[in-house]
Amino acid sequence: MTSNKEAKPIIYTLGWCPASAKLKEDWNSQGIEFEERQVDQSQSYLDEALKHADMVPIIVFPGGRVEVGYKNMIG
Fold it and tell me: Which of 12, 53, 58, 72 is the most exposed place for a label (fewest CB within 10 A)?
């Protein structure tokens, strides 16, 4: 089995983004573990996020699948 750190999806967020806030709220209430990378707090996180999309939230699942937005919301 892989380590928990490996198995967690990574979410790229913005502090003021309603879609990012909703994603985190929903996943926390469902007990879904994730690693948050807030792109407005780190240039390296922003650079990583821009490899996938230019809107948040960006979800990168273990295995490489990427989703942009959450429940038809994009910030």
Answer: 72
**pTM to 2 decimal places:** 0.87
As for how many domains the chain has, the answer is 1
Instruction: Read off φ and ψ for residue 57, nearest 5 degrees.
Output: -75, 150
Cis peptide upstream of residue 62 (ω within 30 degrees of 0): no
Give the pLDDT score at 5.
52
Distance CA 51, CA 44 (A): 11
The helix, strand and coil proportions of the chain, stated in percent and rounded to the nearest 5, come to 35, 20, 45
> CB within 8 A of 7, min separation 6: which ones?
62
pLDDT confidence of 74, banded at 50, 70, 90? confident
